Amino acid sequence: MAKRPYVKKINPNTIDSHQVSPGYMLTFIRFSNRDTFNYTTPPEEVRRPLVVYNDAVSVTVANSKQGVTASMSATLKAGDINYATAISAGDYVFVNMVDWDDKVSIIDGFGQDVQPNSLRSRAISGQAINKYKDGFKGVFKVQKVSKVLRTDPATGTKVYYFNVQAFGFTELNTVIYYDPQIYGRLGGNLRLFMQQFNKWWDGNLKKNFNIQKVIPTLINALLGQGRKDPNNKVPAAPITHFKLPTTVGSLLGIKGSSLHAIDMYNFYLGVWGSSKGGSSIPPHKGFNPNIKNGDGLPKNYFITKTKLQGNKVVDAEYWNNVKIWSIINKYSNSLINEMYTTFKVNPNGSVMPSLIIRQKPFSSDHFNSPHQEKDKEGSQNSNYILSKYMELPRWSLNPSLVYDFDLGKDEAARINFVQVYTRTVAANDARNRARQAGTGNFTFDREDIHRHGLKPFLATADYDYPEKASNKATKGKEWAELVSDWVINGHLREAGTITCQGIEEPISVGDNLEFNGIIYHIESVTHNVSIQPITGKKSFRTNLTVSFGTDPRSDSARPVYAEMEHTDSYKERLEDYENGERILPGFSDTQHIAGATSRRDGEEVKETLEKSYTLNPKPKSKDDRVVSVNTGETPEKDTKKD
Hints:
The two termini are 30 Å apart. The radius of gyration is 28 Å and the shape is globular. The strands form seven sheets. Strands 1, 2, 3, 4, 5, 6, 7, 8, 20, 21, 25, 26, 27 and 28 form a 14-stranded mixed β-sheet that branches. Strands 14-15-13-19-18 form a five-stranded mixed β-sheet. By secondary structure, the protein is α+β, with helices and mostly antiparallel strands. Among the domains are: 172-362, no CATH class; 411-491 and 618-641, no CATH class; 568-611, no CATH class. It is built from 15 helices and 30 strands.
């Protein structure tokens, strides 16, 4: 049975409903010198923060696991400020969305904010606006500011407004370019972006490393040296770039006179273990299970007890027009691990832009790898390679906050054959592939293939270089088993979208979501606030894209899937009502079946009942599900040979 994970409930704020008067705020940090090519004003100098709330008639923030850069778009009214002049590409913008507009500010008749601790007051005075309860949705760089004029062809009425588009994590999309001829021409005296990078990279890393050692060094080199930290053992980068205005740091709660973009990011590395349940645990602890500073890394790095899987021989690289994100991702072992950006509450209670590289947290409770190492006491170390899905921290969304959803299962997600090849330094590619196939680097569902044909998942992971030359074992079989647990039967797990009342809390992609008795994984989060132009009514909505919907009754013996119980609609609605969820409409029609008994006026009186699709008998063991790849014999006979 899975350990009870940390659960943060999102409930209505009154007994019978959720009452809000949404407030939101944009805080622009603007560079004083927009043309550093022709003017000599200090490049980091910025103006007083420009705080916008009433002029913003629509603001949308979107963050997805599948995209590197989170996005922000806003529509600003053309009032007494010409935003085409006031805001420029390259400026920073902070976004806050809260349930109550008095959290933003309360202005008296003299134009003064009577709330000394309001978001507006803190932003103007350069104080942090990214605490857990601040509704902080991200910090972005302005990409485009456009002025828009629209004329109604019927009435001739003209409407004039401004559109602002901005993106987060833009530094990770920076293209790397290094030309040794330019370096030679300048004599190596200027701090250009890739000055001496190849020499530095070659001198520091030309070895075989666990990827968790490689990645921090890459980040430090490619994003630039951050604040000095006496405990920092990461090699100093020979380049300095992405200078950060101190005001941006102040709004994020970062102190320092010489800041770089790397300072405003949090970095997470490792295999996430189980979270601890209990109402006494604060959210910033609950959503960071078993995470700490350490390993001689800077304070904005957070690691787990168990390191990422994968070893790599790292040589000097030739990067030309390659993005920083692609370089880091190259060393992440994306078969086993995932890398994504988000705005997440950290262990210190601040919501920060974060880069997370962790093992994919989709291992089921009934999966136990025979390749798990033993701890000192000789018992199985459950944290060695597993990040259990049901033990991941989760948000529990009250159904009364939901406006609509579209959730279901898709045949396109069916996988019934998994094969994983890895590489070692011990053999050439052809021999290595033959050897790994011979050891059984694949898993399959024979019966499902017979019914539906082959639905394969094939992958090669170039991260299987043993740290010691004497270690010739490969991880192909181990990783194939791990991946098969994630992807086989994907067509039985629910996915889709949920639209609900705006969520002020820092709900993040990569977290789990409990809704209507099913545990989902959050793939993307979109927040939108807007003002209805005629009535002036404010609206705050959150849209969640979710996947991997699994029934929490799954345990160490068997998986349980959603929508396996209620073949009859009446029973489903009755249970929905009695459990207090009350998501569904309060009616149930019956199906007209020819020849059915107990009918009145052509309509069936008694509900049509069918048996549950959740099987009661003990499910197959792991050995029963997999057939030996060496002999084709039954697993029992093959096990005896081993």
